[in-house]
From TrEMBL, chain A:
This is Tax1-binding protein 3. The keyword Acetylation applies. GO terms for biological process: cell-cell adhesion; establishment or maintenance of epithelial cell apical/basal polarity; neurotransmitter receptor transport postsynaptic membrane to endosome; neurotransmitter receptor transport, endosome to postsynaptic membrane; receptor clustering; regulation of signal transduction; Wnt signaling pathway. The lineage of its organism: Eukaryota, Metazoa, Chordata, Craniata, Vertebrata. One of its GO terms (cellular component) is adherens junction. Its main location: membrane. Pfam families: PDZ. InterPro entries: PDZ, PDZ_sf, Synaptic_Scaffolding_LAP-MAGUK. PROSITE patterns: PDZ (PS50106). It is a peripheral membrane protein. It is found in: Cell membrane; Cytoplasm; Nucleus. GO terms for molecular function: protein kinase binding. Keywords: Acetylation, Cell membrane, Cytoplasm, Membrane, Nucleus, Phosphoprotein, Wnt signaling pathway. The keyword Cytoplasm applies. It comes from Cardinalis cardinalis (Northern cardinal).
Automatic annotation (TrEMBL), chain B:
GO terms for cellular component: plasma membrane. Its main location: membrane. The gene is Vangl2a. Residues 38-49 have a biased composition (Basic and acidic residues). It comes from Cardinalis cardinalis (Northern cardinal). Residues 64-82 have a biased composition (Basic residues). The keyword Membrane applies. Residues 28-130 are annotated as: Disordered. Residues 118-130 have a biased composition (Low complexity). Keywords: Cell membrane, Membrane, Transmembrane, Transmembrane helix. PANTHER family: VANG-LIKE PROTEIN. The lineage of its organism: Eukaryota, Metazoa, Chordata, Craniata, Vertebrata. It comes from the Eukaryota. This is VNG2A protein.
């Protein structure tokens, strides 16, 4: 699913309104959202209520595949953070996937 | 019922085979017979083997029967074993001793030797030949009336062994002295080398004497049913050695009247060396070979399932049996028939159902087997309740025991506070000073009731008489033991050896084995040591061959990293 988030300006920072976890330098087995425990991708762990991410439709447990065209499946945690919080970007476009989407795809493939 | 059994056992204490002769002399199946009978039965070529009593007759073993000769007779004597078993009971009944309790007999014997249990006989294999031991001689001379005929056979065996020993020991001296006595004038003078050789002979003989005293003249632990193969082998060896030396000596030196005295002395020295090496061989075969553990033996008591594991080396089955018995007396908790029965309330329900547990006394098993089949089907429906009953009964019993135990501990603690050791500097009225016995009696009264109740609840009261408790109390007071130390004897059921002698309930064990008992232990061998009430089932397992490999770990190679799971908000 493609989600477009408009950043909110708060003071000196641009806020997106969610938290991420994961990365190739992290321990994937502690990820509560991933189905496959060796998945080192970036996952959304929290979404602040009423923030731009929630407004845009981002949900907890989503795996972020791309940010503005940059691939997020094989990045370190810090790189992911950097890509999401670039100062000169007002809008970030995310490509995310979640389990409900995956299931729907599977079902459509089977039927 | 215990008394006649004890009497029976008492007489069975004396080696079984040796008691058989009065009934079965004709069979002459029993090698413990007087020498003449033995000689008739043996083929002439075996006479030397038979003559070989060990010069070191400390242990019990048979005079010279080798196993092969037994095999010939096995078949025709197999049927005899059954008849022998049948008469065993008769014999013991006819020879009624005055009904002394086992204690007295045991104590007279026990004074002379440490533990005389180990009366065994093989039931399965045909013959059982019996061993004679050196110390049995002294024991038997003090024994009672029926052992008279036993003395002869044992005496004879021991005498033969001693004779051979003496012969072997004196031979070198004879070798040295005979030329001096017979043809002194013709001998060449022999200077310092001879003197050196004399000294060496003297010291070697002394060492041999001390070594054989240390190794062989020990109290036998047990009475083996069959000949101790290694000993017999060694006896043959010694005898052949001595005989061959005498042959050479007679032919070469006596007949030809050799004038070279130095040669004679060297000849004698070589014999002493050979004897020392035989002694070394004896040490290795009899003592060292069994030290390295090769097998693990599991001994399970059939009555209540108590089991232990032991590591032993290469032993024959009979020696392993004796080893197990030695350890049985200090490892296994004492056999308490009263603890085998299920509580009455459970039993009353189960009586109509199955009796699953084996009882201590034999007479009641007949009833259960008779009934159980008939009512199993009918009682199948009621099966469900019995385990419930059992569970609650057990919980109740536990609670009761704990309560009584608490009372006992408190009573004993309190009693011990009344006694204090007299310090040297205190001056007290002489009437107030007590020796340990009186002190024990003084405080016993306060704890007697609690003790009695506790013992009754744990069904230990047959094992502890008031006298024994008093004695133990006196012992503990003398050695400044705390109440807890005094109580350890009563709170847990200890090993059998800790109790009074008559609780050992006789020292006769029967070894039942499918293989000949002089066979070595092998993986998977099972034998049974039987007593009247229960038996010990022993099974063997080989200790596996360990393959150790080496791995070197560099101390600097221990390195670690953090497992991260961070969360950043964007």
């Amino acid at each position: 699913q493609r989600i477009e988030i408009h950043k909110l300006r708060q003071g000196d920072n641009l806020i997106l309104g969610f938290s991420i976890g994961g990365g190739i330098d992290q321990d994937p087995t502690q990820n509560p959202f991933s189905e496959d425990k060796t998945d080192k991708g970036i996952y959304v762990t929290r979404v602040t209520v009423g923030g731009p991410a929630e407004v845009a439709g981002l949900q907890v447990g989503d795996k972020i595949m791309q940010v503005n065209g940059w691939d997020m499946t094989m990045v370190t945690h810090d790189q992911a953070r950097k890509r999401l919080t670039k100062r000169n970007e007002e809008v970030v476009r995310l490509l995310v996937t979640r389990q409900s989407l995956q299931k729907a795809v599977q079902q459509s493939m089977m039927s | 019922k215990i008394e006649p059994l004890k009497v029976t056992v008492d007489f069975l204490k004396v080696p079984l085979g040796l008691k058989k002769p009065p009934l079965k002399e004709a069979l002459a199946a029993l090698p413990g017979k007087p020498k003449s009978q033995i000689l008739e039965r043996h083929k002439p070529r075996r006479s030397d083997a038979m003559d070989n009593e060990s010069q070191y007759s400390g242990y019990s073993y048979k005079s010279g029967h080798s196993r092969s000769s037994r095999k010939h007779r096995d078949r025709r004597e197999r049927h005899r074993s059954k008849s022998r078993d049948g008469t065993r009971g008769d014999k013991s009944v006819t020879i009624q001793a005055p009904g002394e309790p086992l204690l007295d007999n045991g104590s007279t014997r026990g004074d002379e030797r440490d533990d005389n249990w180990g009366e065994t006989t093989t039931v399965v294999t045909g013959t059982s030949e019996h061993s004679i031991s050196h110390d049995d001689l002294t024991r038997i001379t003090k024994d009672m009336e029926d052992s008279a005929h036993l003395d002869c056979s044992r005496h004879l065996g021991v005498a033969l062994g001693g004779a051979l020993a003496l012969l072997a020991f004196l031979t070198p001296l004879a070798f040295l002295l005979l030329p001096q006595l017979l043809w002194r004038e013709e001998l060449e003078p022999c200077g310092t080398p001879c003197e050196g050789l004399f000294i060496s002979v003297a010291f070697k003989l002394l060492i041999l004497l001390l070594g054989s005293w240390a190794l062989f003249f020990r109290r036998p632990k047990a009475f083996f049913p069959r000949v101790f193969v290694f000993r017999a082998l060694l006896m043959v060896l010694v005898f052949l050695l001595v005989v061959s030396y005498w042959l050479f000596y007679g032919v070469r030196i006596l007949d030809s009247r050799d004038r070279n005295y130095r040669g004679v002395v060297q000849f004698a020295v070589s014999l002493v060396d050979a004897l020392l090496f035989v002694h070394y061989l004896a040490v290795v075969l009899l003592e060292l070979r069994q030290l390295q553990p090769q097998f693990t033996l599991k001994a399970v008591r059939s009555a209540d399932g108590a089991s232990r594991f032991y590591n032993v080396g290469h032993l024959s089955i009979q020696r392993a049996a004796v080893w197990i018995l030695e350890n049985y007396y200090h490892d296994f908790p004492v056999y308490n028939p009263a603890l085998l029965n299920l509580p009455k309330s459970v039993l009353s329900k189960k009586m109509s159902g199955f009796k699953v547990y084996s009882l201590g006394e034999e007479n009641s098993t007949n009833n259960s087997t008779g009934q159980s089949r008939a009512v199993i089907a009918a009682a199948a429906r009621r099966r469900d309740n019995s385990h419930n009953e059992f569970y609650y009964e057990e919980a109740e019993h536990e609670r009761r025991v704990r309560k009584r135990r608490a009372r006992l501990v408190v009573a004993v603690e309190e009693a011990f506070t009344h006694i204090k050791r007299l310090q040297e500097e205190e001056q007290k009225n002489p009437r107030e000073i007590m020796d340990p016995r009186e002190a024990a009696q003084a405080i016993f009264a306060s704890m007697a009731r609690a003790m009695q109740k506790y013992l009754r609840t744990t069904k230990q009261q047959p094992y502890h008489t008031m006298e024994s408790i008093l004695q133990h109390l006196e012992f503990c007071i003398t050695h400044d033991m705390t109440p807890k130390a005094f109580l350890e004897r009563y709170l847990t059921a200890g090993p059998t050896i800790q109790y009074h002698k008559d609780r050992w309930l006789a020292k006769q064990w029967t070894l039942v084995s499918e293989e000949p008992v002089t066979n070595g232990l092998k993986d998977g061998v099972v034998f049974v040591l039987k007593r009247q009430d229960f038996s010990l089932v022993v099974s063997t397992k080989k200790i596996p061959f360990f393959k150790l490999s080496e791995e070197f770990v560099d101390p600097k190679s221990h390195k670690f990293i953090m497992r991260l799971q961070s969360e950043t908000s964007v």
